Amino acid sequence: MSHARFAELHCVSSFTFLRGASHPEELVARAAQLGYRALALTDECSVAGVVRAHRATRDHPLHLIIGSEFTLADGLKLVLLCPDRAAYAGLCGLITRARQQAGKGDYRLDRTDLANAALAECLCIWLPGESCPASDGRFLQTLFAQRLWIGASRFMEGRDRERLCALRHLGETLGLPIVACNDVHMHRRSRKPLQDVLTAIRLKIPLQMLGTRLQPNAERHLRSEQRLATLYPAAWLEESVRIAERCRFSLDELQYEYPAELVPAGQTPTSWLRELTESGAHQRWPAGVPAKIQALMD
Questions:
Q1: Whether the Cβ atoms of residue 178 and residue 149 lie closer than 8 Å to each other
Q2: What are the tens digits of pLDDT across the range 38-52?
Q3: What is the pTM of this model?
């Protein structure tokens, strides 16, 4: 019997500082080894790791999707994915704005920022909190009509069944499709001790005192498609592949482009430069520009 197809659409790397416990190259290599149809690198408010991931796909053929994870100031959490170059530009603009609004190493976004961003092409996976407020979904529907999914994750934490039932009900209430995604933090479960140490450093709390602040197990690694097929409905796994098929953007599309010259209409860059230079020279030497300076200008 054929196993389920799957594309991981929520994955952070070591470029999500003190959260991700694997390098982008390791995640790409492992996803390719597992036969994933695609992997989305979605570091938190960052695309810093995508170049290394992109290079890794040359040695480990894999459909790489570029995206990013965000948590807004009010707790609303989502992942944005780039299906094309316009979406990538909009995502980078949002990241820039978020970083500008906070201190070094941090970011800040609110719902107004999200509504005003150029995200008309981005795909959105909503990651509801424990209370699963439908109002959050309705807000995102106004921004991402026909481009919004509910992300469902299962980490074997004791209340998974209740959680998935709540998400299913939420999807039915809002008319939103559900996709399986796993909030991946490491390429293999053996990185869990390192992930725990990173958590201790991030929270500035001794490791032995972290308690429930640590992830309870190592399920946030890249799991096999056979394993995932036992955890999620087949339709939720297949939905991940359909989303991946919509994301065709690649860093190979980006080339150096000389920026447009900021000159007035009717002017060339050379003529405008001459005009500015002559104006500045007359201000500097109101009684007359010295012949030597004039010769240099000519």
A1: yes
A2: 999 999 999 999 999
A3: 0.86
